[in-house]
Specification:
Blueprint (H helix, E strand, L loop, with lengths): L1 H7 L8 H9 L2 H19 L2 H4 L8 H4 L3 H21 L7 H22 L3 E7 L2 E5 L7 E4 L5 E4 L6 E13 L9 E10 L6 E6 L7 E4 L3 E2 H5 L9 E5 L3 E6 L4 E6 L6 E4 L31 E2 L14 E7 L2 E9 L7 E8 L5 E6 L7 E2 L4 E5 L16 E6 L4 E6 L10 E2 L6 E11 L8 E9 L4 E7 L6 E4 L17 E5 L5 E6 L2 E8 L2 E8 L4 E5 L2 E9 L2 E9 L15 E6 L6 E6 L21 E4 L5 E7 L2 E17 L11 E12 L2 E2 L3 E3 L5 E3 L2 E8 L13 E7 L4 H39 L3 H16 L1
Parallel strand pairs: 20-29
Antiparallel strand pairs: 1-11, 1-45, 2-3, 2-10, 4-5, 5-6, 6-7, 7-8, 8-9, 11-39, 12-13, 12-38, 14-15, 15-35, 16-34, 17-18, 17-33, 19-20, 21-22, 21-28, 23-24, 24-25, 25-26, 26-27, 29-30, 30-31, 32-33, 35-36, 37-38, 39-40, 40-41, 40-42, 43-44, 44-45
Helix pairs in contact: 3-6, 6-7, 7-9, 9-10
Length: about 775
C-alpha cells in the first residue's frame, strides 16, 4: 500500500526530443514498415519495369536502385534496425545470434551502397590483328585493321600502291615440317603495285617466316619466280590491334572532332530520356497514322567535357529523341523542276506486298522486280501510242526508194558481226555497239543509242540511231563524237532503234499515267491508271500505283518504327537524337543515329556489325565538324590485345550452327609497363581481373555458315568493377552465422540450462526452495 502511494506521487519528468526520436525508431513495427516499403519499391523496379519507364521517370533498373528514395528507405531501415537492436535486445551471450544477424544486414547494406555508388560496367570490341604496311620510299608506316574488305592506298610516284584485304582464315593449316599440324590466323592481302601485275600476300599471325606471295591464276611465287616474295622491298606484317577504351552501359555522349582531326572529344549528355519518343512537332518525323505520337518537348544543353573541342563556344543542344527509328527518304510534290517518281506495290500471292520506288530519270532506279517493271516519262499523251509492243531490243532498217524494210531483233551475235548487205540496195551495215539509258544534260528523259556503221556507194559513215528519232545523227568514220561533226541522217536510208524494255511499262506524262504489258505473244494490256488503282497482270500477280509525283522533292526524316515491327531486345541500338548546333537564327539541326562504339575511322565498320556514320556539320565560315552519338567511354587501365580466339565445339567441330558450340575462349594480353603480359584465357563463365576491372566474354565474331573457317576477327569483352563485393559477402556470412546460432546453438543452450535446472531441483532437500529456483531459472532462460 505504501509502495503504491509512493508510485502515485512520483514526480513526472518530461522526455527530451532525443528520447522521443529514439522511442520512435525503437518500434519493431516501424522496421517492418520500412522493410515492406523496400519490398514494394524493389518489386516495382524489377517485376513491373513499366513504372520506372514512365515519361516522368525514364529510369533504367540500375538508376532505379540508385535513386534517392531507395537510399532514404535503406537509411531509415538501417537506423531503425540499429536502435531496436541496441535498446530492445540485451547484449548477452544468449542473444549473440540476433546481434550477428543484424550486424550482417548492416554490413551487407554498407557493401551494397559502396558497390552501386562506384559501379561501372561496359563493353569493348577487341580486334584480332592489324596490318602494318611499309612501302619502299615512304617514310611513314600505314596500319589497317585486319578485317575483310578493308582497303588502303599509299601514294608513291605517279600511281601509288593499293592494298585490299581479301579474306581471313582462323584455322589455316601449316604444312611446314617444323610446325606441321598447327593452325594459324591467316590474312590474304591483294597488292596492286604501281607497275606490274597484282599479287596476293599471305600473312600468318605468329609465323612471319611463312609469309609468301601468290600470283592469281598461276599459284605460289616460289614456283613461278624461284622466290617467296614478288617484291622483297615491300614489307607487310601482322601486329596486335590494341583496344584502349570501353563504352559504359546506359549512358549517352556526343563525340566531336574537327576536320582533319583523328581523336574524338567527348561531351556527356545528362538527363536524356530512354524509353519514349520526344518530338516537338509531328512534321519532324515520319510515322504511321494509326500510331500514337504524343508531343513532348526536349531541350538539353550539351556542355563541353574536360578540355576544349571543335564546338567550344558554340551552343549545342539536344531537342529531340526517338527510341526506335531510322532515316528514310520520301518524296513529295512541289519541286521547281521536272523529276517524275512513281511509288508502286507488287502484290504477289501468297507473298507479302513489295514496295518499290522508281525514278524515271535515273537509269539505276527506273526499274524494279529484276528489271521486269520500268518507269519512263513521256512529253505528251500521244507518245503512249508509240510504246513498244515487244520487250526485245530491235533495229529497223528501210530504204524508201526500194521499199525494203527490215525488222531485226538484236541478239549478242549481231553486235560486231561482219557487214550485212541490204539486198536490193547498194547499202550494207553492221551493228557496232549499244548505249542504253544515257542521261544527257539537255534531256528530260534518258536516251538510248545504237551505233551502226553504214557503207554507201560513196563512203562509209556511222549512224547514231536514237530511240528518239529526232536525235538520230550521222558521223564520219574518223569523226569525234565528243567534238561535234554530226550531220543530219542520210535520207536515203532510214533506221530506228528500240532498246530492250521491260514487259511491264509505266509511262507518265503531264496529267496522267499509262500502263502497258507486253506478253509473250505481243501486247496484252494497255490502259490509263490513277493513283491508288490496281491492275491485274496475270493470275495471283497485280500491281498497285501508290503515288506519282511529277516535280518530286526528296524529304529525309526519321521514320518511327511501329512497336509490332521492333526487335524486342534491340535496346538503344535504333535510338536517334535531334542535335541543334548554333545560336538562334543561325542554328543547324541534324538527326544522329546511335552508334554503340565510336571508332577512329570507317575501317572498323566491319561487315555491318559495327557502324561508323558520323554527321558533318558546316559552321559559319566554312569550317566542318564531325559529330557522333554514342555512349560515354572510359580509358582502360591498360591496352588490351587479342592473341587468339578458340571455339570449344561438340564432336565434329563447328558446322555453322551455334548449337555445335559449347564455349568460346579468348586469349587476352594486357600491356603492363610497356610490355605485353602472357596470354590470359577468358570464357563465358571464366572472367579475369586486371587493373581493378574484371573482363568477361560477352560477344564474338560468329563465322558464316558458308565459311566455317572465316570470322573470329574480333571478340567482345564485358568490362566492369566489383567494388564492395567482399564486404557484401562478409555481411551475408555474418547473417548466416547469426541464423545458425539463433536457430541451432541457442536452443541447445536453453535445453542444457533447463536440464541443469531440473537436476538441481532433484538434488535439493527443500522442495519449496527448489520450486522457487526453478521458476527463477525459467524466467531467466526465457529472457
Amino acid at each position: 500500500m505504501i509502495s503504491s502511494e509512493l508510485n502515485h506521487y512520483q514526480p513526472h519528468f518530461r522526455r527530451g526530443p532525443a528520447s522521443l526520436v529514439l522511442d520512435f525508431f525503437s518500434n519493431v513495427w516501424l522496421g517492418i514498415f520500412w522493410a515492406g516499403l523496400l519490398f514494394l519499391y524493389c518489386s516495382l523496379g524489377s517485376a513491373f519495369p513499366v513504372v520506372r519507364q514512365l515519361p516522368w521517370l525514364e529510369m533504367t533498373e540500375f538508376e532505379w536502385f540508385h535513386w534517392w528514395p531507395f537510399n532514404v528507405l535503406i537509411l531509415h531501415f538501417c537506423l531503425t534496425l540499429i536502435v531496436v537492436t541496441v535498446r530492445r535486445i540485451p547484449l548477452r551471450w544468449v542473444n549473440a545470434g540476433v546481434w550477428t544477424i543484424h550486424t550482417g544486414i548492416l554490413v551487407l547494406c554498407a557493401g551494397s551502397y559502396y558497390y552501386f555508388t562506384t559501379k561501372v560496367e561496359g563493353d569493348a570490341p577487341v580486334f584480332r590483328r592489324q596490318i602494318r604496311i611499309e612501302v619502299p620510299g615512304v617514310p611513314h608506316v600505314v596500319t589497317l585493321p585486319a578485317l575483310p574488305g578493308n582497303e588502303a592506298a599509299v601514294p608513291a610516284g605517279d600511281r601509288g600502291w593499293k592494298f585490299r584485304i581479301q579474306d581471313t582464315n582462323a584455322e589455316w593449316p601449316i604444312l611446314s615440317d617444323e610446325h606441321k599440324g598447327e593452325k594459324a590466323f591467316a590474312v590474304n592481302v591483294m597488292v596492286t603495285p604501281p607497275a606490274g601485275e597484282p599479287f596476293i600476300r599471305q600473312l600468318l599471325a605468329g609465323f612471319p617466316q611463312y609469309t609468301e606471295d601468290i600470283l592469281p591464276g598461276k599459284g605460289r611465287a616460289i614456283k613461278n619466280l624461284d622466290r617467296k616474295l614478288v617484291d622483297e622491298a615491300l614489307r607487310l606484317s601482322l601486329d596486335y590491334e590494341p583496344t584502349k577504351y570501353f563504352h559504359v552501359m546506359d549512358t549517352w555522349a556526343l563525340f566531336i572532332r574537327g576536320e582533319g582531326e583523328t581523336e574524338w572529344k567527348e561531351r556527356p549528355i545528362h538527363g536524356m530520356p530512354r524509353y519514349h519518343h520526344y518530338v516537338g512537332s509531328r512534321d519532324q518525323v515520319f510515322h504511321e497514322p494509326n500510331e500514337p505520337l504524343p508531343l513532348r518537348a526536349l531541350d538539353l544543353p550539351v556542355e563541353p567535357g574536360s578540355g576544349e573541342d571543335a564546338l567550344s563556344g558554340t551552343p549545342v543542344r539536344v531537342t529531340g529523341y526517338l527510341r526506335y527509328a531510322h532515316l528514310e527518304k520520301r518524296w513529295r510534290e512541289g519541286g521547281d523542276r521536272l523529276f517524275p517518281v512513281l511509288g508502286l506495290s507488287v502484290l504477289s500471292e501468297p507473298s507479302p506486298p513489295q514496295s518499290h520506288e522508281l525514278v524515271a530519270f535515273d537509269s539505276q532506279r527506273n526499274h524494279a522486280a529484276d528489271g521486269n517493271v520500268e518507269f519512263i516519262w513521256l512529253s505528251e499523251r500521244a507518245q503512249a501510242d508509240a510504246l513498244p509492243e515487244d520487250s526485245r531490243a530491235r533495229l529497223t532498217v528501210s530504204v524508201p526508194d526500194t521499199n525494203v524494210n527490215l525488222d531485226l531483233p538484236i541478239t549478242q551475235d549481231l553486235i560486231n558481226a561482219p557487214p550485212r548487205p541490204i539486198e536490193g540496195t547498194p547499202f550494207s551495215f553492221r551493228l557496232l555497239n549499244l548505249h542504253d539509258r544515257l542521261v544527257l544534260a539537255d534531256q528530260d528523259r534518258p536516251v538510248s543509242i545504237a551505233v551502226v556503221e553504214i557503207q554507201s556507194p560513196e563512203k562509209s559513215f556511222r549512224r547514231w540511231v536514237s530511240d528518239q528519232p529526232e536525235r538520230t545523227r550521222d558521223l564520219p568514220v574518223d569523226g569525234d563524237p565528243h567534238g561535234g561533226g554530226f550531220q543530219p541522217p542520210d535520207s536515203r536510208l532510214h533506221m530506228t532503234y528500240q532498246p530492250q524494255t521491260s514487259p511491264l511499262i509505266f509511262a507518265a506524262y503531264p496529267g496522267g499515267l499509262h500502263f502497258v504489258f507486253n506478253g509473250p505473244n505481243g501486247r496484252a494490256i494497255t490502259k490509263d491508271l490513277k493513283v491508288g488503282e490496281t491492275v491485274q497482270v496475270v493470275p495471283r500477280l497485280a500491281l498497285r500505283v501508290d503515288s506519282l509525283f511529277t516535280n518530286a522533292v526528296a524529304q529525309v526524316k526519321p521514320y518511327i518504327v511501329p512497336r509490332e515491327r521492333q526487335q524486342p531486345k534491340a535496346g538503344e541500338h535504333f535510338a536517334m537524337i535531334r542535335l541543334e548546333v548554333g545560336r538562334a537564327g543561325e542554328s543547324q539541326t541534324e538527326w544522329l543515329a546511335f552508334q554503340p562504339y565510336v571508332f577512329p575511322s570507317e575501317d572498323y565498320a566491319y561487315s555491318g556489325r559495327f557502324s561508323f556514320a558520323p554527321e558533318r556539320i558546316r559552321l559559319p565560315g566554312g569550317r566542318r565538324v564531325e559529330v557522333a552519338f554514342s555512349r560515354q567511354r572510359r580509358e582502360l587501365p591498360a591496352p588490351i590485345a587479342l592473341e587468339d580466339f578458340a571455339l570449344d565445339t561438340h564432336v565434329g567441330g563447328y558446322t555453322g550452327s551455334v548449337s555445335t558450340i559449347r564455349n568460346y575462349v579468348s586469349q587476352l594480353r594486357f600491356q603492363d609497363g610497356g610490355r605485353w603480359t602472357d596470354p590470359r584465357p577468358i570464357s563465358v563463365n571464366n572472367p579475369t581481373e586486371f587493373g581493378g576491372y574484371w573482363y568477361f566474354q560477352s560477344t564474338w565474331d560468329k563465322p558464316p555458315q558458308e565459311n566455317p573457317a572465316g570470322g573470329l576477327n574480333f571478340t567482345g569483352l564485358g568490362v566492369g568493377n566489383r567494388n564492395g563485393v567482399y564486404v557484401q559477402l562478409a555481411g551475408c556470412c555474418l547473417s548466416v552465422a547469426g541464423m545458425i546460432f539463433a536457430f541451432y546453438v541457442k536452443p541447445m543452450i536453453r535445453r542444457r540450462r533447463a536440464e541443469q535446472s531440473r537436476s538441481r531441483i532433484g538434488r535439493s532437500s527443500w522442495p519449496e526452495i527448489g520450486i522457487q529456483e526453478s521458476a527463477s531459472l525459467e524466467v531467466s532462460s526465457a529472457t
